[in-house]
Design goal:
Strand order of the largest sheet: 1-7-6-5-4-2-3
Oligomer: single chain
Distance between the termini: 59 Å
Helix content: 40-55%
Radius of gyration: 23 Å
Number of strands: 11
Bound molecules: pyridoxal-5'-phosphate
Structural class: alpha/beta
Shape: globular
Largest sheet: 7 strands, mixed
Strand content: 5-15%
Low-confidence stretches: none
């Protein structure tokens, strides 16, 4: 593709995306595609000869769109949001255009240094302690996902511990994300050495149970090496006490990782900074701008208080990567801070997001989402056909139909099949619960009112 052709086609694609942004609310939120339907619309082998771009773009509408669930719809209330935004898309496009692979400082100094500065900006914006800044012993890095960040934290914690791997035990609440167990398995620590600590009525890890479980393990000659505190659980958005986890972890010299994948972003607002109380004791922390901070997937900010254990676990120097900048010891090579060698230039999209919206713009979005979620929760709790199922200090509201599980299940299925909105569920004390997360940048109170109306309309039809 010549530069001229690229200019023309690129303009068409940008127009296509802009049209999509304007019309995304008109699509059924959850894709109605049947399994195999997209596969059936695709040729079974790659074309022998190049094809016209018109045909390719036409197939985006014909083949791709029917199988898309519209995460960018203003009525996407499922899972957690995965917000795209104009500045982020354009930053990502520039990153693709530059085609940089930023594994080493020397393979593109800007890629590393812009990332260092962005992570320091993020640490400041989130109110994270000095020890997570690049100017300290620690620092931050962009990972693809919170799962990868957790895996890196576990590798560092495992290698920092002097004990043999057969003795290592990890602790997280029974509401912690599945990536904790998965990462432990990858790191060679089987699931039966992850203690799932009970949660209290608020959904937070019981600090006392954590401390006693650790003590009991020590009596059995096992070695507590890691505590994962969840700052906003996936199911209900509950907050473990970081301070209580830190207290228990420090008694055993265990690593404390704080997983704030979704809700950490709220800490940009002073009034929600309480979610991070005790963070000064954490060894590592992660938050996903690709969830609630207008930055296209993928972008996880991962911070460590001390980079040495991370480097000790992940750094390897083959001859073909050797270069004078690395040898000087004066630069950071982010390949040593992650699992893969290669890395995309993700800092560009984060830079664009932070500059375009400013922290004030991001704060306004967060406050608007929280306000809408509180209005939604009030409407649900006023209606005796529904029950609120968990505390909802931020923008995730869990509720169920008073008539029971079967009605609640039917309600979610009816709404999702209608395409008018999308919700997901979780389980609390064995009961089926609807999760409604109000977190899309373009969601307005009108969308929320429509959801409330839909729920009220449908709940009687769904009675068990
Ligand atoms: N941790 C928590 C608390 C989450 O809620 C999620 C996803 O929702 C994750 C980790 C996994 O995030 P990622 O997809 O970035 O790995």
């Amino acid at each position: 593709m010549s530069a001229d052709e690229f200019r023309r086609r690129g303009t068409e694609v940008v127009h296509w995306i802009a049209n999509y942004m304007e019309s995304v609310g008109e699509f059924p939120v959850q894709s109605p595609a049947e399994p195999g339907s997209v596969l059936a619309a695709l040729p079974t082998a790659a074309p022998e000869h190049g094809e016209p771009f018109e045909d390719m773009l036409a197939d985006v509408d014909r083949v791709v769109m029917p199988g898309i669930t519209h995460w960018q719809s203003p009525r996407f209330f499922a899972y957690f949001p995965s917000n795209a935004s104009g500045p982020s898309i354009l930053g990502d496009l520039l990153s693709s255009g530059l085609g940089v692979q930023g594994m080493l400082w020397s393979t593109s100094p800007t890629c590393t240094e812009l990332e260092i500065r962005m992570l320091d900006w993020m640490a400041e914006a989130l109110g994270l302690p000095e020890r997570f800044r690049s100017t300290s012993r620690g620092g931050g890095v962009i990972q693809d996902t919170a799962s990868s960040a957790t895996l890196c934290a576990i590798a560092a914690a495992r290698d920092r511990s002097a004990a043999s791997i057969e003795k290592l035990v990890a602790y997280a609440s029974d509401e912690a994300h599945s990536s904790v167990e998965k990462s432990l398995r990858i790191a060679g620590i089987p699931s039966d050495r992850l203690r799932r600590i009970d949660t209290d009525a608020q959904g937070a890890m019981c600090g006392n149970t954590l401390a006693t479980t650790m003590d009991e393990d020590v009596k059995r000659d096992l070695v507590p090496f890691l505590v994962v505190a969840t700052c906003g659980t996936t199911g209900t958005g509950a907050f473990d006490s970081i301070a209580a986890c830190a207290h228990a972890a420090s008694g055993h010299d265990a690593w404390l990782h704080v997983d704030a994948a979704m809700f950490g972003t709220a800490s940009i607002c002073e009034e929600y900074r309480w979610i991070h109380d005790g963070i000064e004791h954490a060894d590592s922390y992660c938050v996903n701008p690709h969830k609630w901070m207008l930055t296209n997937f993928d972008c996880t900010c991962f911070f460590v208080a001390d980079r040495e254990p991370l480097l000790a676990a992940l750094s390897i120097m083959p001859e073909y990567l050797r270069n004078s900048a690395t040898d000087s010891g004066g630069v950071i090579d982010f390949r040593d801070w992650q699992v893969p060698l290669g890395r995309r230039f993700r800092a560009l999209k984060l830079w664009f997001v932070l500059r375009w919206h400013g922290l004030e713009g991001i704060r306004a979005m967060i406050r608007n989402h929280v306000a809408m979620a509180q209005t939604f929760a009030a409407a649900i709790s006023e209606d005796d056909r529904f029950e609120i199922a968990a505390p909802h200090p931020l923008n995730l509201v869990c509720f169920r139909a008073a008539a029971g599980d079967e009605t609640t299940r039917r309600l979610v299925s009816t709404i999702n099949t209608s395409g008018r909105a999308m919700l997901t569920h979780c389980s609390i004390d064995g009961q089926f619960v609807v999760r409604c997360c109000i977190g899309h940048a373009t969601t307005t109170m009108r969308d929320v009112d429509e959801l409330i109306a839909m729920l009220r309309e449908e709940v009687d039809q769904c009675l068990e």
